[in-house]
Amino acid sequence: MAREQWTSNLGFILAAAGSAVGLGNIWRFSYVVGTEGGAAFVLIYLVTIFLIGYPLLTTEIALGRKTQKNPVGAFKALAPNSPWWLVGAMGVLAGFVILSFYSIVAGWSLAYVFKALGGFNAGDDFTGMFVGHITSVWPPIIWHAVFMALTIGIIASGVVNGIQRATKILMPVLFLLLIVLVVRGLTLEGAGAGVAFFLTPNLGDVTGETFLRAVGQSFFTLSLGMGALITYGSYLKREDNISDSAGWVVGLDTGVAIIAGFAIFPAVFALGFDPASGAGLAFMTLPAVFAAMPAGTIFGFMFFLLLSVAALTSAISLLEVVVAWVVDEKGWTRKQAALTIGGIIFLTGLPPTLGMSLWSNVTFLGMDILDTYDFFASDILLPLGGLLTAIFAAHVWKTKNAVEEINSPKGTIVFGNWYTILVGYIIPISVAVVMVWGLYTKLFS
Fold first, then answer.
1. b/e 161-176 (16+ beta carbons within 10 angstroms → b)
2. How far from the centroid of its chain's Cα atoms is residue 19's Cα?
3. What share of the chain is helix, strand, coil (3-state, %, to 5)?
4. pLDDT in tens, 194-239
5. 200 neighbors 42 (Cβ within 8 angstroms)
6. Whether the predicted pLDDT of 266 surpasses 70
7. Range 298-304, long-range pairs (CB < 8 A, 24+ positions)
């Protein structure tokens, strides 16, 4: 059966940007910025995005288009009879693990769409509302199942009729909702303190873990190291430009994260809430913000709808990584693969879902089950996968061949010797140093 391809370059850009734009840009980015001191983290994150994220994202897309294969097949095609295919397998595993807990958080956001419709009222116990939801048994499981069903349905429909059609609708909706929320946040009295927190760096707050989280966040939000961009790149036509398209994807992804910061922190500071609320920022602090602002029910509904839309655009790319591998390597039909793999991922997500209620005392290195999944995938598998992909592109595939693939056809952004230096040396060394330093800080200090 002929491999499906994107019907247009715009279709690819929106799908790849949809893969990148997700909970990582809004839920994860906002709470990491809040807990890591604000603008100092944002500065390190932006440097990481453009010096590490963009070259690696372009490399992964090129690997996919060159081989027209899934992550495992791509490494096998370019380095046959070698263990390099394990890097692709690591990406498939990362996508699998991330979606298993990503769907849980996405389920929370779906549930809060309906909670917001019921109205957030000043004086409500929003912490109790959130804790009550996540520590109950059945509601989180049901919403986890609903979100996975939506994701499976889109993937089962195919690349063009499923992924491309969905992202062409969802991405413009996402941007529209986000802009409305920014305007509302910036027009609140006292919003300037939130803008200052977001834009004025205090480098004294920076630690080794700050760098690790910045690298982990850039990999998480750009879908690096999890095989998604290799998979999406494999559906590109030969005449589609890579470097400019990758630039659009990075720009859209980073833009959404920054715009989300302007939507969230001015409102948080204007109404006197703590930006360092951690992972509960979106679910405990922001409902209180919406309750305190005029027309808060409308804006609360829009925010959680935005969060759910963003989650869905990323989730479909995560499931597609594993489905593409099964379809290519095992010969399954797309529908069979989507239903089976999606069902297994749903079951894999049950331990962290139930961990909030039945196994709340189970910890690993001081982390609950959900945080353990996140730590293993985001802070270990993704940076390690990106590091090994850079080494592979530079020293096995060779940067000469990678540059030739990226520049064919040549775009506005032309790759040359700077790419060889970055991918061959700077990226592997810097990611390795940050991983070791950050993990040491996290585990032993």
1. ebbbbbbeebbeebbe
2. 7
3. 80, 0, 20
4. 999 999 988 877 877 788 788 878 888 888 888 999 999 999 999 9
5. no
6. yes
7. 299/180, 299/181, 299/184, 300/112, 300/116, 300/120, 301/113, 301/116, 301/117, 302/177, 302/180, 302/181, 303/116, 303/177, 303/181, 303/263, 304/109, 304/110, 304/112, 304/113, 304/115, 304/116
**Closest to 432 (Cα-Cα) out of 210, 215, 225:** 215
CA dist 391 → 31, 68, 423 (Å)? 32, 21, 7
Q: Could you give the C-alpha distances from 7 to 66, 111, 320, in angstroms and in order?
A: 18, 34, 18
Contact 397, 420 (CB under 8 A): no
User: For the chain, what is the mean pLDDT?
Assistant: 89
CA atoms of 243 and 354, how far apart (whole Å)? 43
Instruction: Label residues 374-412 b or e (16+ Cβ within 10 Å = b).
Output: bbbbbbbbbbbbbbbbbbbbbeebebeebbebbbeeebe
Percent of the chain clearing pLDDT 70 (strictly above): 99
The whole-angstrom distance between residue 42's C-alpha and the CA centroid of its chain comes to 16
Contacts from 339-348 at CB under 8 Å and sequence distance 24+? 339/152, 339/156, 341/96, 342/148, 342/151, 342/152, 342/155, 343/152, 345/96, 345/99, 345/100, 345/103, 345/148, 345/319, 346/100, 346/103, 346/144, 346/145, 346/148, 348/96, 348/97, 348/100
What single letter denotes the amino acid at residue 433?
V
Cα three-residue angle 210-213-217, rounded to 5 degrees: 140
Q: What is the pLDDT, as a whole number, of residue 365?
A: 66
Rounded-to-integer distance, Cα 222 and Cα 253, Å = 7
Q: HSE, CB side, 13 Å, CA atoms: give it for residue 228.
A: 32
How far apart are alpha carbons 66 and 28 in whole angstroms? 33
The CATH number for 9-444, chosen from 1.10.3810, 1.10.10, 1.10.4160, 2.40.170, is 1.10.4160
Distances (CA, A) of 146 to 102, 346, 369: 13, 10, 21
Which of the pair, 135 or 357, is modelled with greater confidence?
A: 135
